[in-house]
Amino acid sequence: MHPFHWVPGDGARHASLDARPEGVFLHPTGAEVRTLCGLDVLADNSQLAWLWETCPECNAEAHRISARSTTSGRTR
What we know:
By secondary structure, this protein is of the alpha+beta class. Helices cover 22% and strands 21% of the residues.
């Protein structure tokens, strides 16, 4: 599992490292979230929001994080 998660906000699907509230899978709508691209956005968990385009900066950083976690987890 990766340390980031996806959260729609500000018209795009962003990735974030922010901790989610205890016992929930998604940030609640209206919660302020810091994204991997550096924006602070208000989460929007509407059905339409999950169809927004992915933020290219968050996507690139998420891929970098994924690559690091994949290679650091390998054993020789």
